[in-house]
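pinging the channel bc i need a second pair of eyes. not urgent but kinda urgent?? the chain im working w is below, pasted from the shared doc
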Amino acid sequence: MGQPLKEGEDYYLNEQGLLVFTASYHLKRGYCCQNGCRHCPYGYRKKRQDAGPGEGK
């Protein structure tokens, strides 16, 4: 992309302090990375593995 990222427009920091890219950033980048990003504008969702017995409660 070549330009510095802008906080609030391209990303934000979540409650755990992790950097989260916005849909606007993904659209500027121009392609889906297929990592299951929270704000993916391309509709990609990672497939979850089924929880085993006693998991996920």
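so The chain has one domain: 1-46. and The chain has a mean pLDDT of 87. — does that match what u expected or am i reading it wrong
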